[in-house]
Amino acid sequence: MSEVLTGKRGLIMGVANDRSIAWGIAKAMAEAGAELAFTYQGEAFGKRLEPLAQSVHSDFMVDVDVTNDASLDAAFEQLSARWGSIDFVVHAIAYSDKTELTGRFLDTSRENFKNSMDISAYSFVEVARRAYPMMKENGGTLLTLTYQGSNRVVPNYNVMGVAKAALESATRYLANDLGPEGIRVNAISPGPMKTLAGAAIGGARKTFKHTDQNAPMRSNATLEAVGGTAVYLASDAGACTTGEIIRVDGGFHVLGMPQQDNL
């Protein structure tokens, strides 16, 4: 897939460190020839992001709070002033109170439910609303990240599962809205990965080990595999793929029970 994104420009939202899924995607897209811009939230994440952005020859970083309309407006105004148009956006943003990612979903607080839905699901709609005018002329791709806890119960995933279900539904509705303008909207669903976000979920290590041992491929997803999938979706090869939830989980989603040796 070398150079398949040459001449394309895009925005990567949600890189926390070099183990982030968003970083795996950014690295793969840069290697495929894309020119990248990045968002981050807060000074600490900005300091972590800066050397990573520089390593893929990007000098465009902007601080964004996706719960603040003015912040989002300012970011896309800066992006438009810099490039005029873009070809893709990667939305890798999610949040929930760590203390509520253990125990029962029943105990989710109203405040955390609303906050989790706002940041993890509704922010994709806000991003799409601002990104699509920059894609109208030549079309483009909007990508987000989800997880199988959206449609199957995963212990401790709790309100994030509900938020991911909303995100996946939003992906389908946005795909229908924006398809006539040549804009594709898809979600990538990796299995458990050793990321900063994943570590916040109770029992994360056990979940990672379980899927690694039982997936048909006997492996969890890698950053390279997720990145390659994103490259495909953003490339011309993905021209007729939209409204999809692409699973990159070693096949774990097809199982009805663990492998026989692990029962």
Automatic annotation (TrEMBL):
Write out the coiled-coil annotation as residue ranges. Answer: none
The name on file for this protein is Enoyl-[acyl-carrier-protein] reductase [NADH]
* Pathway as given in its UniProt record: Lipid metabolism; fatty acid biosynthesis
Q: Which GO terms describe its biological process?
A: fatty acid biosynthetic process
The organism encoding this protein is Phaeobacter porticola
Q: Give the record's family classification.
A: Belongs to the short-chain dehydrogenases/reductases (SDR) family. FabI subfamily.
Which PANTHER family does the record match to this protein? ENOYL-[ACYL-CARRIER-PROTEIN] REDUCTASE, ENOYL-[ACYL-CARRIER-PROTEIN] REDUCTASE [NADH], CHLOROPLASTIC
**What GO MF terms are annotated?**
enoyl-[acyl-carrier-protein] reductase (NADH) activity
What EC number is given for this enzyme? 1.3.1.9
Q: Keywords, A to Z?
A: Fatty acid biosynthesis, Fatty acid metabolism, Lipid biosynthesis, Lipid metabolism, NAD, Oxidoreductase
Q: Where is the active site?
A: Y147, Y157
Q: Which reaction does it catalyse?
A: a 2,3-saturated acyl-[ACP] + NAD(+) = a (2E)-enoyl-[ACP] + NADH + H(+)
Q: Which SUPFAM superfamilies match?
A: NAD(P)-binding Rossmann-fold domains (SSF51735)
- What class does this enzyme belong to in the EC scheme? oxidoreductase
The positions annotated for binding NAD(+) are G14, S20, I21, Q41, D65, V66, I93, K164
Pfam families assigned to the protein according to its UniProt record, in alphabetical order: adh_short_C2 (PF13561)
